[in-house]
Amino acid sequence: MTKNLFKEFPEIKTNEIMLRKLNFNDIQDMFEIFSDEEVLKYYDVLPHKNIEDTERLFFTFTNNYKDNKAIRWGIVNLENNKLIGTCGFHNFDYKSTRAEIGCELNKAYWKQGFMHKALNEIIKIGFENSPLNRIEAIVDDENENSKLILEKLAFKHEGCLRKRFYFNGQFRNENYFGLLKDEWK
């Protein structure tokens, strides 16, 4: 696999959502997501305290794409044209043709199928329009909603690493999930 997973940033549109490149006009919607303690409960970062924290994250997402380290889509609700989350691939292993998937969603849009649809679309583009052979996900042991979404997307639970990382004053367990190209649809 080359060091450039996607030659151009792919835009994806369904009946309900658009997955597109983030732009600086998204900062306020991103802040709404990344400043929410509930949204970041199982994330390994603390909630943003100010808009500058979110601007730094925006530039991290943008620069990681330019440097071929990651790709992060904005999830836009087509009903109101609001950025409601982000999702994408990171931790590329170009030699082994694998990447890790990650996401977050504004809690006002939880349990409405938006994240399932978004992840399904990026998995599709990852397997059909790139040389990826394996997509991985790492989920906090207590994050039942993320585990459920991954299982609905045909990811296999491959194990739990106990007290694998330290965050916010405690050791946390990590669950590992994997999806192979030949297992997908």
Automatic annotation (TrEMBL):
GO terms for molecular function: protein-N-terminal-alanine acetyltransferase activity. Keywords: Ribonucleoprotein, Ribosomal protein, Transferase. Residues 17-182 form the N-acetyltransferase domain. InterPro entries: Acyl_CoA_acyltransferase, GNAT_dom, N-acetyltransferase. One of its GO terms (cellular component) is cytoplasm. SUPFAM superfamilies: Acyl-CoA N-acyltransferases (Nat). It holds the Pfam family Acetyltransf_3. This is Acetyltransferase, ribosomal protein N-acetylase.
